[in-house]
Amino acid sequence: MSTEKAPRPQPERILEATQLQTLIELLQQRGYEVLGPTRDESAIVYGPLADVTALPVDCGDEQAPGVYRLRTRGDGAYFGYAVGPHSWKAYLFPPNEVLFRVHRDAAEGLRTEILGAPATPRALLGVRPCELAALAIQDTVFTQQAVADRGYAERRRALFTIAVDCAAPAATCFCAEMASGPAARDGFDLVLTELCDPPQHRFAIAAGSAAGAELLQALPTRAASAAEQSAVSQQWQRATAQMPQRLPAEEERRALLAHSHSHPHWEAVAERCLACVNCTLVCPTCFCSDMVDRTDLEGEVAERVRTWGSCFEAEHSYMVGGPHRHSVAARYRQWLTHKLETWHEQFGSSGCVGCGRCITWCPSGIDLTAEVAALAEHHGGSTAPRTPGGIHEGA
Ligand code: SF4
Ligand code: SF4
């Protein structure tokens, strides 16, 4: 992921917050199922939005390693929080997906039913910049390899994305240094910057695609003033300043990890890691899966189901004769070095967008940026170059 992306041009239009419902209605009139953030008891999750009242208005959050709690903001903002436990990948790469069914048919013998009906057009409202970057990474993984994932590609084609710049990064966020936020740069149909300064409440709005431009034309907007444009820039700068540098620069980070394959620090992490797989489930870029075949009780129908998998499971590394990453230390090393080092070799970018979910939702409070910092601090003497292939037990 380049750190040299050009900043987004200043938005020229303003949508009053009282017109956010109009945006939802226009999307619905165009046939989209509108999905967005909503409050589910004590977390902000993604789900269907019937109307604007489903948004988590006036909700902020506090996050730290192993800590997540909601709080009341007191200003009525619609998007005044950082990302929660859900990511949009569940709508493109479902946690459970039946790929095909085989029916025993008295007349035809075995009949195979390939699943994957045309995807429902969906509009995602409230996509954070780091999540746009995660979608781009998953596009590379699922659609730009030797064999494209048909279901993912169909669902992606039917997507309309409305990004919202992040104004309230959590203490676990580091999107700025991964060049994925806090302001969205590309990959959206529409982008909003919420300007919430009671009693004034409005959104700077801009289009990023022809479909977005068409919708923007239909919305009741007005020209942005110079003061509003300046408020947008200041918000981008404030949000960036709230995220301190947590990782070495990309080249240094990759060299460090490439030379830390046998470092004893992996064992120190493994003493705290429960191999619970939470970090991989919440991560918006993790894509490992497992295949399960199941039959009904009568033996009339069998189906193949793809489910989310995790490199923290011992079975995930099962090859001839058994798993080759027996220890938790080896599995944690695999996960972290794939995200921040070998992903570059495999897919041409970082596998981490700096959303911070794996830090917040780790029950042990393990923070990958702190582990990289610990490796950097201890580096030298006890490190050795990474074994070619990087998959041996070793740690
Ligand atoms: S790093 Fe944390 S979230 Fe990930 S498997 Fe270990 S204990 Fe679970
Ligand atoms: S590795 Fe952690 S911080 Fe990076 S994208 Fe995944 S969940 Fe977010």
3D architecture notes:
With 395 residues, the chain is of the alpha+beta class. It has 2 domains: 13-94 and 117-241, no CATH class; 250-289 and 310-378, no CATH class. It has 12 helices and 16 strands. The strands form 4 sheets. An 8-stranded mixed sheet has the order 3-2-8-9-10-11-1-12, with helices on both faces. Strand 6 (96-105) and strand 7 (109-114) form a beta hairpin. Helix 7 (250-258) packs across helix 10. The protein is globular, with a radius of gyration of 23 Å. One iron/sulfur cluster binds next to helix 11.
Detail the poorly predicted runs: 381-395
- The count of DSSP E runs of length 2 or more, i.e. the number of strands, is 16
How many DSSP helices? 12
N- and C-termini, Cα separation: 28 Å
What is the gyration radius calculated from CA atoms? 23 Å
| Helix/strand order, N-terminal first | EHEEEEHEEEHHEEEHEHHHHEEEEHHH
Highlighted features:
single chain; alpha+beta; 2 domains; 12 helices; 16 strands; 30% helix; 24% strand; disordered C terminus; binds iron/sulfur cluster
